[in-house]
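the two lines:
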Amino acid sequence: MSIKKLGPEELLALDKFSVNEGHPHILVDKAICATCTPQVCLVVCPARCYRLKDNAVNFEYAGCLECGTCRVMCVEKGVTQWNYPGATFGVTFRIS
Amino acid sequence: MADDKYDAIIVGAGPAGSACAYTLAKQGKNILLLERGNAPGGKNVSGGRLYTYALEQLEPGMYKRAPLHRKIIREQIMLLNARGATTIDYHNPAFGDGVPQSYSVVRAELDEWFAGEVESHGGTVASGVLVDDLLIENDKVAGIRSGSDEMRADIVVAADGVNSLLGQKAGLFPDATAHTVGLGVKETIELPDDVINARFGVKSDEGVARVAIGCTDGISGGAFLYTNKGSVSLGIVFNLVEAGRQKRQVQDIFQDFKMHPAVLPLLEGGTSVEYGAHLVPELGYEGIPKRLHREGFLVVGDAAKFGINTGMIIRGMDLAIVSGLAAGQAILKATKPADAGELYMKQLEESLLMANERAYKNFHNIFDISRIFNTYPALANDALQFLYTVDGKVPKPMLSGLYGVVKKNATLGQLAADGWKAFRSL
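prediction for all of em together
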């Protein structure tokens, strides 16, 4: 493989995840997000877990890198719960 | 056994937690070191440079056992504009003499080794354990809760990282806010060692640390590149408040930096193997919470927001180790657990950690000078382009040419204002 610009899916495909299906560790209230204008999550989440879908902020926890950016950046407190994934779940870094 | 009461429970097996646990285990204390990752290091991302003195403080010669990568003997600063770059290269082999000043590291290896050192002195390390809450009894922290398990100790040490949920649960500080942290993103790229040696002009045990500005779309922040054994770490740290004010995704800004014509040749032929992100304490001394302890509870490392960033020197892991050591020493000295907090604050002073933080107290104000991240790197490249261009036409007189370069990028008033602000921050 040579070095190329990697898209969000390609970047996350480099990492090892164990997803706790049906148990999101971060809860997002879409009703609050609908009233938020800055929607900074769209540009600052380094895993792009927050994306626009049908004009609304959609959150997908599976590729979360557990950094805490949304926790500190969410303007309208649409992130109603921020926690780490349960033990053994989430991302595992091997060479970072 | 769940009923056992430990002398100390340390939450988080990063450098701070392991340094604390090591200090205590070595003196025969009955300690439990908890890590939420499947193995220590599994949740951690850092740029990747450790200043060796911290391990030397913990135990002279310990660094020789550590899985350190390359000793950093070349320090480089890269100023980028859209197409080119000006790189300052400070090559000092003396940084590798004796006890080398610093090494590139990979956290998955370093943290696992460090926790293993704790185990070798009889400490108990349990990975895959997420601490959900603190046990608080009679206004004292008495232990932790993980799922339905409760574990008790004379003292709990929160080494739970920059997001320190435990420090918050203990009521020591409020939820972190965006201006106190930066966002680091990083790609690890495998490259053969002989390629790294040739490309960066180092021997096989030597390495380069490079920082770069002018690659963040004007957002306060900078990039880094560290040479490891068999890989390079490439990343950017962004000021989050400014990143949130603009419209480009931070991933895109980072990927464009990777593909920059002056950066890509350093990586060509490599293989991207991992992508990570992590928050970093951004404010130095001013970001450290006023309260780092309560009865039965101490906060160390990133959780205490220890960090120093001068743009040229970026320190976190060394301060984490020194603070973990300070906490361990305080616990050992305390004749009763209630004394540990004040003793910890004293140890932080005696270890010179706080003096180091204070020495750079105002430094973060420099990063409010927005032109550092766009205008000045461009100016440097324009100036060198003017000085190096030979095209057969009549060259402008040197001084007026350079003045033209300055005027194209900034006004003299801006230069004066920024110079004054920088001067006042030093």
